[in-house]
Design a protein that fits this description.
By secondary structure, the protein is of the alpha/beta class. The chain has 2 domains: about 1-15 and about 365-445, Arc Repressor Mutant, subunit A, CATH 1.10.10.920; about 15-325, tm_1862 like domain (pyruvate-formate lyase- activating enzyme, Alpha-Beta Horseshoe), CATH 3.80.30. It is about 40% helix and about 20% strand. Helix 3 (about 80-100) crosses helix 12 (about 345-355) and helix 5 runs parallel beside helix 7. The protein is globular. The structure holds iron/sulfur cluster. Iron/sulfur cluster (SF4) binds near residues 61, 65, 112, 114 and 148. Iron/sulfur cluster (SF4) binds near residues 65, 68, 70, 114 and 171.
Length: about 450
């Protein structure tokens, strides 16, 4: 079949493009605090806005899911909560002391790890310290958190709602008992119903379910049954992530199953296509890559009005150009630079206690990086990009078009003098299209060990 041929041809390793340059090509192995703060000042100078996005990494989980690629710390010891929240507050105060403006937090996301590992009172203590008040106006600030259905309490849902949270995403993955056993994440549907329905009853306006395709021992019947259960609750948004099998990066955590247990190439893509078919039939719109939303949801509206934006947190309706990441391993983005915090809880804590912004590596973008970054962002959000003859990189455009030649022949992209547009047939291959713009990948031979496969 034509579809299978395309999948065979284009399912090659490639980045997910949550940043450009992508992390393996960042050049500052020892980015200094000074360089990082300078790049924030440049952002201020150029964009003249004090609005920011804040990502907060809460790394603790009680049990290891063996498919997980996140930076986490497995522990059942909840005495880690208070000192970790103390450190986050200190880190925020360090930023406030070093920035020459007072940031307004437009968007905040609690990610992990498992944010709901933390007691509601600890999460609220953190929010009060960040915002300097007891609650916020949810029409002015978009607050969201990731919730584990097995350990999200009614108290957490209520207290976070009362502070001003209106969005949550529930980590589901797949409902099949066989898949859940393989990934070591036993999660009954009843837990999801309970959390989802209670959140809805309180008044959360955007509930997302995170599903994963390509998991070990996952077959089409599993994804069908998972989507059917999901549709009983009709969440506002659904993420349908591709499982990234990168055991060479994540070590033994992902080795609880064999390569042979994983659906491959067209078999894997069929899982996505079947889920997409069921979701679209139920009224969902596909957003960018891996995301779906009901028509009333802000993400769907932003896509239709071409206001969709994407940052390290994923697709968003906010277009802030400065994202500060707090917590162990968090990544920050000033548009002109990226910075990542230390990946060990102990070292991260020690650096903050010494009064240092705990960044350990990053990248300051060149003028060329900035232009390529914008093209890749446009492709990922709007499936097209404009090639400007006056751009300082216009001499690279013939080469980029040449690299897209095969995709054009296969009907996956349309190329005119000034526009590269991904066709509807080409949407599953958006990452391949971005690769043609990626100067780092094209400067050196791509090794299979840097990235997961694109499909
Ligand atoms: S999937 Fe979530 S809960 Fe499971 S180990 Fe990873 S971060 Fe923790």
């Amino acid at each position: 079949m034509e579809k299978d041929r395309l999948i065979q041809k284009y399912n090659v390793p490639g980045p997910r493009y949550t940043s450009y340059p992508t992390v393996p090509f960042w050049k500052n192995d020892q980015l200094t605090e000074h360089e990082w703060i300078d790049s924030i000042k440049r952002n201020q100078h150029v964009f003249q806005s004090n609005e920011i996005s804040l990502y907060i990494h809460l790394p603790f989980c009680e049990s290891l899911c063996t498919f997980c690629g996140c930076h986490k710390r497995i522990t059942k010891n909840h005495s880690v909560e208070i000192p970790y929240i103390d450190t986050l507050i200190k880190e925020w105060n360090l930023y406030l002391s070093k920035l020459d403006f007072v940031p307004v937090i437009k968007e905040l996301h609690l990610g992990g790890g498992t944010p709901t590992f933390f007691q509601a009172d600890q999460l609220i203590r953190l929010m009060k310290a960040l915002f300097g008040k007891d609650s916020i106006d949810p029409t002015q600030h978009e607050l969201s958190f990731e919730a584990h259905p097995n350990n999200t309490s009614i108290e957490q849902l209520e207290k976070l709602y009362n502070f001003g949270f209106r969005r949550l995403s529930l980590g589901i993955q797949d409902y099949s008992p066989t898949v859940q056993t393989a990934i070591h994440r036993i999660q009954p549907f009843e837990h999801v119903i309970k959390v989802h329905e209670f959140a809805q009853k309180i008044g959360y306006t955007s509930i997302s379910h995170d599903l994963v395709f390509g998991l070990p021992k996952q077959h089409v019947e599993d994804i069908e049954s998972t989507v059917e259960k999901t549709l009983l609750l009709m969440p506002d948004r659904i993420s349908l992530y591709s499982y990234a099998h990168v055991p060479w990066i994540k070590g033994n955590g992902q080795r609880g199953y064999d390569e042979n247990d994983l659906p491959k190439n067209e078999e894997k893509r069929a899982l996505y296509e079947r889920a997409k078919e069921l979701l679209e039939k139920a009224g969902y719109t596909e957003i960018g890559m891996d995301h779906f939303a009901l028509k009333h949801d802000d993400l769907a509206k932003a896509m239709h009005s071409k206001k969709l934006h994407r940052n390290f947190m994923g697709y968003t309706t906010q277009s802030t150009t400065l994202m500060i990441g707090l917590g162990m391993s968090s990544i920050s983005d000033s548009w002109f630079g990226f910075a990542q915090n230390n990946k060990s809880v102990e070292e991260y804590t020690e650096l903050v206690n010494q009064g240092k912004i705990p960044v350990f590596r990053g990248h300051i973008l060149s003028d060329e990086d900035l232009i390529i970054r914008k093209h890749i962002l446009d492709l990922m959000c709007h499936f097209e990009t404009y090639l400007d003859d006056r751009s300082i990189i216009h001499s690279l455009y013939p080469k980029i078009k040449e690299r897209l030649g095969e995709m054009e022949k296969d009907g996956l992209v349309e190329i005119s003098k000034h526009i590269v547009k991904i066709t509807s047939k080409g949407i599953p291959f958006v990452r391949n299209c971005c690769k043609a713009f990626d100067q780092d990948l094209n400067k050196q031979e791509l090794t299979t060990n840097l990235f997961s496969k694109t499909i």
